[in-house]
Amino acid sequence: MDITPHRLKAKRLPLLRKPHQEIDDAAWSSIALPTQRGVVRRVRAIRRGLFALVWTLLCLPVQSVLILFPGPAKMAFSQVYWRTLGGLIGLHVRVIGVVSPPGADGRPVVFVSNHSSWLDILVLGARLPAHFIAKEEVARWPIIGTIARLGRTVYVRRSRASTGRERDDMGVRLSAGDNLILFPEGTTSDGSRVLPFRSAFLSVAELKVTPSRQTAIVQPVSVVYDRLAGLPIGRASRPLFAWYGDMDIGSHFWRLAQHKGMRATVLLHQPIDPANYASRKALSQAVWAIVADGAATLRQNRPAQPIAGAVTGPTPAASPAFV
User: Per the count of CB atoms within 10 A, which of 124, 179, 222, 259 is most buried?
Assistant: First the structure.
């Protein structure tokens, strides 16, 4: 019996063959496919970016006119703008729960949400009839600053010296019947957790904004980006949506816009009455617990239901949620 070991022959890959040797169609397909996918993804990102820019440029003059007149038209158009912009960049939104309208006694609503990305502006701006509270630096951002001003964003500074003036500004807006959207983490997270809420941000919930000296209603909101290519995402893929640290918005958009099947889920919890809590810190911790628990449930892809906080009196009838 011949037990001499046989030498194994090297398997030649198509790329290693000599120029005169032919490569069959299947081999070429395996080589060209990754390159073709990369080109398609880049074209998709460019197309989405151009559509978003054109849509924004068309809407700016319209909103500039609407903001000069009283009535709900400017808010309705703002929601149309954000909803369409989200669709143009390929982001789908699922809403669980109902949006709390102002109370029967005219109490406005402060929506309190976690914050992990600039995408939160698109997602919540299209679904909530409210104006954003943003840091002052946003006003200086190109294009985005203009959009924020036309959306009647309330700006806040980081310094303590301006706290009283900003509280007064927010009180005036709430007393006029405007709803506000607040991100009390004070910054964006990596999307894998909800950072502790800063109780100073909840000072807006202590303002007496109705003729009967009542505060605004607070509705906690949890936002999680939970689908990519139509499939549930895990911790490894979550940073694709998150925008934090020293990331610039241009490169983040470029990476994000190349993907398909993206989805955000908004979980609207039951509204609560700040009067039920002994202090601003207690209110902040209670709202954080509701938002964090809802976000954790969504990240784990478990069935989610709105969480109820402590409410004084009957809960106002809520308007239907829309997807």
Answer: 222
